[in-house]
Amino acid sequence: MDESLEYLARVQQLRRERLTGKRRMLLLDSGAPAGSHVRPDEWRVIEEFDGYEWRAVGLAPNYPSAAAYVHRQHPQA
What we know:
The protein is built from 2 helices and 3 strands. The chain is an alpha+beta fold.
C-alpha cells in the first residue's frame, strides 16, 4: 500500500466522526442485526456509536419500538 499513515489516520477519523451518535438495533438473544421481518416481536438491544465503540443505551420489547428509538432525531453532543 502506498497510502501514508497520516492519510489512513484521517480516513479512520472521518469514519468515526460519521458514525458517532448513530444508533443500531440488534436481536437481544443473538446479538445480530435483523430487519423487521426477522422475529419482529422479540426484544432488541439499542446501541449507539460513541466514536470508538458501540455501547448499549437501551432495550426495546419489539422491532417497532426499537425502530422508533433508533430513527428518532436526537441532538449531537
